[in-house]
Write a structure and sequence with these properties.
140 residues; 4 helices; alpha/beta; 6-stranded parallel sheet
Length: 140
């Protein structure tokens, strides 16, 4: 049984809803899933999981949330080489540039992005929730 962590930061609940859908998708494939807020996860936990889904909304000028998520993710980057990961998050403006930049960082870190990242504008609709289910299943 694979061990999956779904690590997220959510300000309005949109990214949290996406995280829950990703966790359900992985559980549906028989994975053991741990859902964690960014403040509950640290770099020394990366090795404890077979795969990790990271979720963060777009903030400011299309960047990751700066006080909790960005420092946690930056600390984890050195441990991501060869790790199966997936990314998701919501945004309120722009065109998803923050996700493209984040994917590029992960590729440079040597992480293995197992599926297309999932982004949605505002609250996740049925299509975004289904995509998050599929993301979780792909990690498992």
């Amino acid at each position: 049984m694979s061990k999956i962590a779904v690590v997220y930061w959510s300000g309005t609940g949109n990214t949290e809803a996406m995280a829950c859908a990703a966790a359900e998708g992985a559980k549906g494939k028989g994975a053991e899933v741990t859902l964690l807020a960014a403040s509950e996860f640290s770099a020394d936990q990366v090795g404890s999981y077979d795969a990790i889904a990271f979720g963060c909304p777009s903030m400011g000028s299309e960047q990751l949330e700066e006080s909790e998520f960005e420092p946690m993710f930056t600390a984890c980057e050195g441990s991501l080489r060869g790790k199966n990961i997936a990314l998701f998050g919501s945004y309120g403006w722009g065109d998803g540039e923050w996700m493209r930049s984040w994917e590029e960082r992960c590729s440079e870190d040597g992480a293995n992005l197992v599926c297309d990242s999932v982004i949605c504008n505002g609250a996740p609709d049925d299509e975004a929730i289904s995509a998050c289910h599929a993301l979780g299943a792909a990690l498992a």
